[in-house]
Amino acid sequence: MKDNAVLIPKILKALQHPKRGRQESELLRTRDAAAVTDFLKDASKATINVEIKIPIAFPRDKNPDHLMAMLRDREVYGMSPMRSRQGRSSFKAIANRHLEDALIRQSEWTDCSGDISSITWTGPDSFIGGALAHSDTHNMQYNKPGNLLVGSTSLDVVRSYPDHRVVRPIVANEGDKENANALESMRTTQSPWLYESVVSTAYCELNGFSFTASFDKTVKVWSASEDGSGMTLRGTWPHHEKVNFVATSPHHDRIATATATNGNAVRVYSFDNNDISLSPYDEYCGDRSGEPTDEMGNHAKWSYQPATMQWGKSPGVLDFLLVGYSPRSIAGNDSDVPELKKNTGEICLWNTANKDQIFIVSAKTQNVFEVIWHPTQPIFLAATSPHGPCDSTKTRTQIRIFHQQDTGTFTNVKTLDCPAIDVNELTVKANSLVECFVTASCTDGFTYVWDTARGDQPLHALQHGETLDNPDPDVPLDVGDSGVKFAAWGRSSDRFYTGGSDGVIKAWNLKAATGSIFVKNIMSISGGISTGIFNEDCSKLLIGDATGKIYFLSID
After folding, report:
1. Hey, is 489 helix, strand or coil?
2. Which of 447, 541, 545, 548 is nearest to 502 (CA)?
3. What is the per-residue pLDDT for 470?
4. Which of 124, 270, 405, 552 meets the CB 3.0–4.6 Å disulfide criterion with 107?
């Protein structure tokens, strides 16, 4: 309409034509000709402010492809009734969806040390897991075993291992403030051991070993039994600080770790089967992760630390390690990070085959929340703080898509705007040779969905309910709450799953029409969802919650 004012009389005449149907005329029943003329003039001058609205998906039970109806059609029309099923899914797609929607709860294991932080499948029926533990000087009276777990779905058992622990420190009172853990009576009644949080787990398909990373400043190497009935410690890799991440690749046996420190926070171990504990490693350091100083040159109370880490997945980038850095307080106090530095950070990429750093051309110095690789292309995505021209009231984070160029460098080629303040999980699902679905699950209780072929604004906002986790009422909910912590695709792009702090696992069909994408609630539990993982064929699902429970679901 812009710059087409000459069309206004023709449009107005068409709207007033006596042969217009009643339904079309009803659309303008509250506007006279003068009002319509003024609107068209504003449109021709491009002065109309059109607010972008994201369709919010609410639960609405709809399923046009019932299995019994499909079976009747199959009997009448055969396997490929093209004319009779125009606009509907194939029999195979409907059957797969029906199987996925049949996930039911099989087992539940309780009494872990705290929030389940990580779960990894180590075989068809076996898994390892980690849980948070109360180890602060003010709450260590609640510290207990159950931070390191190995489980079996076939035997219906989960066992706890005590190896990630340290000698319980002696606690002193802070000035005039009395600390219950400093009392002699408390020290004599408590365990001499303090169990530390296990925050990351991984399994290497090539060498068959499992890995657990903990706040006790170690990564431990295990061989788990095939049925998940137990595991044996094979080696320990000491670090200088708390270990936040351990990552493996299905394409090689190099193991990456990252600690809560600046400087050489990232290590890549070359696995030595003959002497696992002495496996050699290389260290990596980001360009900005040297120790910051304040205006007076004194050591700052914060530093840039690894916040996320992923190995490359497609040919040509299998040896590449991608790390996102965020500004973090050294003492754990968020107020130590200066306000002007909170949206800063760094994206770093290394070729671990030769230790070369891969150059990222643009948009690489923002605070990084999460990164993920495209499954088949030399492309990665990063959820970062916003940068460049955008509406700061509506765009609070951005999902940046980086493509590898002919020169080998990576360039930011597309940016997706997100209204959430923090991103927990990213997923990507190819829907053509060049485009894909992108999802960002956030602390505000929504998962935002983009189709990269359809612009930079979300197509859907998948909503979860009221939180069960009792966040701090003195801070905004999207700051104090965990939001959506589980997001995963099913066997195809017809099924997408989310789990939030409302304790609900939801199934969605992102290819359905707006208003019909909600499929069903898979499970509702008494605690917020903290983590989850499907097995390879999506027939089994493990879920961890914020009350220290693990749930096993499968297709019955």
Report:
1. strand
2. 545
3. 84
4. 552
Q: How far apart are CA 22 and CA 352, in angstroms?
A: 69
Give CA 307 to chain center in angstroms: 12
CA–CA dist 437, 351 (Å, integer):
27
> What single string gives the DSSP state of each residue in 400-426?
EEEEE-TTS-EEEEEEEEE--S-EEEE
pLDDT digits (tens, 9 = 90+) for 110-147: 999 999 999 999 999 999 999 999 998 888 999 999 99
* Amino acid identity, position 141: Q
Work out the number of other CB atoms within 10 angstroms of the CB of residue 305.
Answer: 23
Which residue in 399, 469, 402 sits closest to 440, CA to CA?
399
> Coil, strand, or helix at residue 243?
strand
Q: 211: which residues sit within 8 A by CB, 6+ positions away?
A: 201, 202, 203, 204, 219, 220, 221, 222, 246, 248, 255
- How open is the CA angle 494-495-499, to the nearest 5 degrees? 155
Residue located via tokens 């095939």 = 226
Pairing of strands 496-500, 302-311: unpaired
442-458 confidence digits (pLDDT tens): 999 999 999 999 989 99
pLDDT tens digits, 267-315: 999 999 999 999 999 999 988 876 665 655 566 889 999 999 999 999 9
DSSP 174: B
